[in-house]
Amino acid sequence: MKKEKWLILIAVLLLVSVFAGLSACGGNEKTSSTVAVTDENGEVLTDANGNPITAVLQGEIVELTNANGEKIYDENGEVRTTVIYGEQQVAVPVTDENGNLVYDEAGNLVTTMVSYTTTTVGSGGITGIPITDSNGNIVTSPNGDPLTYTATYTVTPALPGQNTANWSSTFGGTGGDSFVDTAATPDGGFAALVQANSKDGSMASLAGDSAAPIPVLIKYSRRGRLEWRQTVSSDSGVQATGLAVDEDGNIAVCGLTRATNLGFAAAGDYDAVVFKFNGDGELQWTRNFGGSRADGFEQIASAPDGGFVAVGYSSSSDGSGTSLGLSAARSAPIVVKFGADGSVAWQRAVGATGDTLTSVAVDTDGSVYAAGNFTSSGANSLFTSYGRADAGLVKFSSSGEQQWVQQFGGSRVDNFLAVAAASDGGCVAVGRSASRDRTMSKLSNNGGYDAIMVKYNADGSIAWQSVVHGLLDDCFTGVCATEDGYALAGYTNSSNSDFRKVGNRGGTDAFLVRTDASGEVLENTLQSYGGTRDDRFNGICALESGELVACGATLSTDGDLVGSAPASDGKNTVGMIARFEAAKD
Fold first, then answer.
1. 187 and 261 share a domain?
2. Are strands 81-85 and 30-36 parallel, antiparallel or unpaired?
3. What is the C-alpha separation between 380 and 352, in angstroms, rounded?
4. Residue in 568, 569, 451, 448 with CA at minimum distance from that of residue 519
5. Angstrom distance (rounded) from CA 256 to CA 341
6. Looking at the 3D structure of the chain, how many domains does it have?
7. Alpha-carbon span 461 to 168, nearest angstrom
8. What is the 3-state secondary structure (H, E, C) of 506-563?
9. Which residues in the chain show pLDDT less than 70?
10. Domain for residue 144, yes or no?
11. Residues 191-224: pLDDT tens digits?
12. Of the candidates 338, 311, 524, which has an alpha carbon nearest to the alpha carbon of residue 416?
């Protein structure tokens, strides 16, 4: 008798078994779905008459809950749901070793019953980690190739409800979209900024005839209800990079653009730009900054006098940046203070070509802390880098006088990506580091990049420094002050060391963590968010309720993103935003 070949049933559109993280309330709605049965190659199986074999999947619609058993809501105030599918059985034809259908003596098609439960779990992997000497330098072979050792890492199943998220939403389409940042508003709610490249999905009714990218400003109530959305339409697109909210609820958005229809005369290649909206989303004013070459803003912060401070870069020696004093061959990071009416109060250039300012914070006395990355050397450089790139921090007075400059890093790459003002007059700068020497000698390095946080006093001295790390790459992208310390958000590939309790769900995971006022990580506050694909947080804010809101982008459709709409198509990200419970006493 010929050897029979058993066909494997694959239900590719069913993503994850979610029993552990779901609340199955009494009276849950039943549902069913008919799908085509495929073999291991994705080919649809057919019966003797050539008709597709289908399976009717019986499921139950259930409500999503978090790790504390509380329901997770969306921006419409509805409880998020998903479908649980139990074990299914389908009659599948048997084929011989040549793929031909097998019939019995009576001429009936031979079938077998296949039972399955739909699940998706992450898979592990092996990665090469560079070997470094005691100084943190990569050890190479005689021919100059880096020497590495292999490390096996694992990922955990992507189940929802393994964190304290109590509200979440996604935004986007098929063009690649992301939440850039979020900020608390005086009414207890929060605002969020989206960089949208899509014209479908969430943008179907918003994009109009605007060129992409399109900034989308979204306002949510304290309960997470959508209150309003405002877009910036243009003929050449606007790259949105930063968001700030003042004490009156006015919202500023910064970025860069080549647009010519935003109410100002375009100065050159790219112009740095700021938009100010009131608390109802009405545009108050638009201001551009720059000259005939490329200029842009990276981040913005509100000032206590009702103005805003933006940081970015300029390559122009003419236009509105003439007083910066840049030569035709020099570009540099810039700091620009705008008044409440949009007038420029002062502007400063710091550093040289190759340096960047990525974040800014303003203290209660108007002092400005600008953080970034510095690689330049020679004339106009703030300092000589220890390695390939160093993190740097510059303090200005409220009138724009430079107070001090601080360098942080070692012989490899170190970056500051976000900064927040501290209640004692200093600030906390966060980012990533691959070094283990110089100013990183106290923290060392655990492999790849480590997520770092450094507290500076008002005089520029370091109060403390701390790290969250695993074996692979870890990075902080956002920080905010809380009532008793700080909250930080970022992304990680690690599943061990500080991440051993939360593991890794696959790809890059978004994560957040709380610390006390001295930088000590509070117990059981590190939690991840996402699914089996890449997820990351770009920003974080603390609400007056004590809850945290973190936002970013995702490729996942399982785990915490199960049942989300719009969902990623697996190739392009959609923006994701989630609110997490307040710290427990």
1. yes
2. unpaired
3. 6
4. 451
5. 20
6. 2
7. 39
8. CCCEEEEEEEECCCCECCCCCEEECCCCCEEEEEEEECCCCCEEEEEEECCCCHHHCC
9. 1-42, 44-48, 53-61, 82-93, 99, 113-161
10. no
11. 999 999 999 999 999 999 999 999 999 999 999 9
12. 311
156 in a structural domain: no
Please tell me the predicted confidence (pLDDT) of residue 162.
82
3-state per-residue secondary structure call for 406-460: EEECCCCEEEEEEEEECCCCCEEEEEEECCCCHHHCCCCCCCCCEEEEEEECCCC
Half-sphere exposure for 446 (CA within 13 Å, toward CB): 23
260-300, pLDDT tens digit by residue? 999 998 888 899 999 999 999 999 999 999 999 999 999 99
CB atoms within 10 A of CB 532: 26
- pLDDT score, position 570: 92
User: What is the pLDDT at residue 126?
Assistant: 45
Rounded Cα–Cα distance for residues 159 and 162 (Å):
7
Residue 466: inside a domain, yes or no? yes
Question: Can you tell me the distance from the alpha carbon of 112 to that of 313, in angstroms, rounded to the nearest whole number?
Answer: 67
37 and 179 assigned to the same domain: no
Instruction: Measure the CA–CA gap between 275 and 502, rounded to whole angstroms.
Output: 39
Q: How far is the C-alpha of 111 from the C-alpha of 355, rounded, in Å?
A: 68
Per-residue tokens: 376: 């330049």
Residue 311, both tokens: 């940081």
Domain assignment of residue 90, given as a range: 4-116
Q: 177 and 106 in one domain?
A: no
- Cα dihedral sign, 341-343-346-350: positive
Token pair listed for 497? 């060391």
- Whether residue 172 sits in one domain with residue 107: no
Long-range Cβ contacts of 220-224 (<8 Å, 24+ apart):
220/75, 220/189, 220/190, 220/191, 220/192, 221/187, 221/188, 221/189, 222/187, 222/188, 222/189, 222/543, 222/544, 222/545, 223/73, 223/77, 224/73, 224/74, 224/75, 224/77, 224/167, 224/169, 224/579
HEC profile for 291-310? CCCCEEEEEEEECCCCCEEE
* Max CA pair span of the chain: 95
d(CA 307, CA 520): 34
Say what the pLDDT of residue 367 is.
97
Q: What is the pLDDT of residue 116?
A: 47
DSSP three-state, residue 310: strand
Residues 95 and 186 in one domain: no
The 8-class DSSP code of residue 320 comes to: G
Of 77, 94, 116, the domain-final residue: 116
Q: Identify the pLDDT of residue 224.
A: 95
Contact 476, 418 (CB under 8 A): yes
For residues 44 and 67, what is the distance between their CA atoms, to the nearest angstrom?
A: 39
153 in a structural domain: no
